[in-house]
Amino acid sequence: MSKWLRLMRTSLLALLVMAPFVIHAAENAEDSAAAGEETVVKVNASAELPKMQKILDKIKGQVSGETNDAQLSQLNEMALELSGNADTLGQALIPQRQQLMAQLAVLGPAPKADSGVKETPEVTRKRSTLENQKQKLDEQIKQAEAIKSGSLNLSAQIVNLRRDNLKTQLALNSGSIFGPRFWAPLFGMQQLDGEKLANFRDELTDTVALAWEPGWRLGTVLWLVAAVLIATLGRRYGEEFLAWISINKLPEGRLRRSFLAAAIALTTLVAVVLAFNFLDQAFTRREEVSDDVQGFADRLVQLSLFCGLIAGLGRAFLSTRRPSWRLPAISNEVAQALKPYPPLTALLVFIFQTVEALNTTVGTSVGTTILANGMTALLVGATALSISFRSSRVRRRLVQEGQTPEARSTLVGLVQMSITLIGLAIMLSLIIGYVTLARFLSYELVWLGIVCGAYYFLSHLVSDGCETLLSVNSLTGKRMQTSLNIDERHLSQAAALLSALGKTILLLFAVVAVLNGTFGTSTPIELLQKAVEFWGGKGLESLNIVPAHLVNALLCMVIGIYVLRVVRRWLDNDFLPKTTMDIGMRVSLVTLFSNIGYVLVILLTLSTMGVQWNKLAWIVSALSVGIGFGLQEIVKNFISGLILLTERPVKVGDLVSISGIEGDIRRINVRATEIQLGDKSTVIVPNSQLISQNVRNATMGNAQGVVTITLTFPLDIDPVQVREILLGVYQENERILDTPEPSVSFKDLTPQGIVLSVTGNVSNQRQTGSVKSDLLFDLLTRLRKEGIVLSRPQTMIIERKNGEMVVKEPQQS
């Protein structure tokens, strides 16, 4: 790139060196013509003009693919130099043309054929030669003018390109605001900018004159009066009328406040936009208005929409005329302190956006554009910092005076901190020279404020409207409840669903506005078109997801889950209880049916959404890696859960024991099994443990419970009597089964006594503990009544007497 630039600069310098010689030759030609000499001056324009055209084409080629501002600046200077050289060469050819015209005048016109006058062949040849030279000079002069015009047009295009790049090249350092380069356009405006502004001023003057001509003057006055009235009285009385509707026609509740806030913002917006449209009609309704003025006026009308939103949302947010109706939680002192800022911000945005529109329409230099952008960012950033600091100062003053300011949420604190940080970033960017970045941050701050403010008020309006519409206290809610015969709880659920749906749609528009609409470049109609395009699937072709299909997918999911739950409830309550399946089998079957059903519903939902599985290969790859590392336990437990539900080694209701844990199985999920202990607490056991470890299933196959009690009696008891007592206690207990009948076995004969074991069966394992407790109570009571005691453990007592150790047996009581 730099090589071509150096080459073209060298060629231009050569042309500049040639220019004096060309001019000198032209002067000699004039002297010769004055002396009456027949001299044909040969200027080497035939060689220089193709070189100039080639340089112009090369500059065009470089501009088409260049984005660097420094290189574009060099190309602009080269285009201007080339324009000057072409003009110099064209001016140098004019004297030579005048000499040829003088020579042709001396020869006179060619005689007519019927005049009878004949001239010598030498004169005819001389005239033909001079006419050919004149025609060639005319073509060269025309070519020089074309090169000059093309160079100027190219320079203007380069300036426009640099101006556009100022909006996108955020890393472009154009000089600090404290440097003389930034303020240079104020003190030394370029001649070309002055001419352009003067021409546009003349066009504006002509436009006003056209609007004030007789026959059009009355219409202009009426449009101006209508603009003033709609901006003052129209806004005021429109707001009062909507406030009257809010107070007298809407039901009591939060809907009144949200409706009034939306009404304030709407009336301000409509008044500002209509006023600017009336002004536009007052001055630009005639067809004679130039295209530049018409485009400038249209840009101002479009700008009025954003300024109306800023002022309207600010007035609705603060609501200083009706503090009790203020929607956000802001103290009246803070609201009064911030009252001047919404109209001030709207005015600043309008002024500097107008200057930027003027620069774009007129085509001023890049320096003037940078100055306008820097001033815009400077004042917007200063306003943002002033808003943050002033609100904080008012709150501190309230605390010092012993008053309690409003309780701010975390979100409000984050918003204020963000405004402060962005304002500081704007100022820092201007100080170090990044004017483009500062302009971007300032406009994004304003744009985010517009989008978030509109979303805040509209979301409250939708939420409060749905709640009021479906409330049983409202007329519509009562009629709906009576006609549909539905419960109040269902109306509340419907209101919550409608509110969530409305907020989702508003959030969609807000996201589209933030991502696709930069302040000053997109109108609300364009944003609506972008939202519709997004809703139609534009931008999501890679996954073939169409947002319009999301509604169908959502309906499919809701209906699928509803049908699944209905079928599950029918299986669990109606069909399966009528079969011979036990409760554990029924629960396992219903759980397996639910798991498979949910998987099918999810697959059907994704298919309805339009997801192409071949487009999700990267998800499958990521899952395979995840399964290999972190998800392997989850997958293992999932597969184990399916095995438990199909093979049924344990089922719901079984009494199991695993790893010292004993309890009843209450639920088998796809990942873990819930075991309820005797104290009603629940232990979550991964399904893989029930597959890989030893599990004791005490109730598998309807196993009966066994109650065994082992007792040790002294050696001097009557074994037969004790045996009869033990069997009698077991037989008297109603929960001990007769078959198999209880039995007593002689377990062992030890020095401590006779060991007897009595055993009886109960119907299931869960009765073992309680039956054993009852039997122990009865046994001890019966034995004590019969005078039979249990054997005690043998102990030894060691005493020291006269220095010797003596072992004594304990006395029997």
TrEMBL record:
<feature type="transmembrane region" description="Helical">
    <location>
        <begin position="505"/>
        <end position="525"/>
    </location>
</feature>
<keyword id="KW-0732">Signal</keyword>
<dbReference type="InterPro" id="IPR011066">
    <property type="entry name" value="MscS_channel_C_sf"/>
</dbReference>
<feature type="transmembrane region" description="Helical">
    <location>
        <begin position="587"/>
        <end position="610"/>
    </location>
</feature>
<feature type="transmembrane region" description="Helical">
    <location>
        <begin position="299"/>
        <end position="318"/>
    </location>
</feature>
<feature type="transmembrane region" description="Helical">
    <location>
        <begin position="370"/>
        <end position="389"/>
    </location>
</feature>
<feature type="signal peptide">
    <location>
        <begin position="1"/>
        <end position="25"/>
    </location>
</feature>
<feature type="region of interest" description="Disordered">
    <location>
        <begin position="111"/>
        <end position="135"/>
    </location>
</feature>
<feature type="transmembrane region" description="Helical">
    <location>
        <begin position="216"/>
        <end position="238"/>
    </location>
</feature>
<keyword id="KW-0472">Membrane</keyword>
<dbReference type="InterPro" id="IPR011014">
    <property type="entry name" value="MscS_channel_TM-2"/>
</dbReference>
<comment type="similarity">
    <text>Belongs to the MscS (TC 1.A.23) family.</text>
</comment>
<protein>
    <submittedName>
        <fullName>Mechanosensitive ion channel protein</fullName>
    </submittedName>
</protein>
<dbReference type="InterPro" id="IPR023408">
    <property type="entry name" value="MscS_beta-dom_sf"/>
</dbReference>
<feature type="transmembrane region" description="Helical">
    <location>
        <begin position="410"/>
        <end position="434"/>
    </location>
</feature>
<feature type="domain" description="Mechanosensitive ion channel MscS">
    <location>
        <begin position="634"/>
        <end position="699"/>
    </location>
</feature>
<dbReference type="InterPro" id="IPR022249">
    <property type="entry name" value="DUF3772"/>
</dbReference>
<feature type="domain" description="DUF3772">
    <location>
        <begin position="141"/>
        <end position="202"/>
    </location>
</feature>
<keyword id="KW-1133">Transmembrane helix</keyword>
<feature type="transmembrane region" description="Helical">
    <location>
        <begin position="440"/>
        <end position="458"/>
    </location>
</feature>
<dbReference type="GO" id="GO:0008381">
    <property type="term" value="F:mechanosensitive monoatomic ion channel activity"/>
</dbReference>
<dbReference type="Pfam" id="PF12607">
    <property type="entry name" value="DUF3772"/>
</dbReference>
<feature type="transmembrane region" description="Helical">
    <location>
        <begin position="545"/>
        <end position="567"/>
    </location>
</feature>
<dbReference type="InterPro" id="IPR049142">
    <property type="entry name" value="MS_channel_1st"/>
</dbReference>
<dbReference type="Pfam" id="PF21088">
    <property type="entry name" value="MS_channel_1st"/>
</dbReference>
<keyword id="KW-0812">Transmembrane</keyword>
<keyword id="KW-1003">Cell membrane</keyword>
<feature type="transmembrane region" description="Helical">
    <location>
        <begin position="259"/>
        <end position="279"/>
    </location>
</feature>
<dbReference type="InterPro" id="IPR010920">
    <property type="entry name" value="LSM_dom_sf"/>
</dbReference>
<feature type="domain" description="Mechanosensitive ion channel transmembrane helices 2/3">
    <location>
        <begin position="591"/>
        <end position="632"/>
    </location>
</feature>
<dbReference type="Pfam" id="PF00924">
    <property type="entry name" value="MS_channel_2nd"/>
</dbReference>
<dbReference type="InterPro" id="IPR006685">
    <property type="entry name" value="MscS_channel_2nd"/>
</dbReference>
<dbReference type="InterPro" id="IPR052702">
    <property type="entry name" value="MscS-like_channel"/>
</dbReference>
<dbReference type="GO" id="GO:0005886">
    <property type="term" value="C:plasma membrane"/>
</dbReference>
<feature type="compositionally biased region" description="Basic and acidic residues">
    <location>
        <begin position="115"/>
        <end position="135"/>
    </location>
</feature>
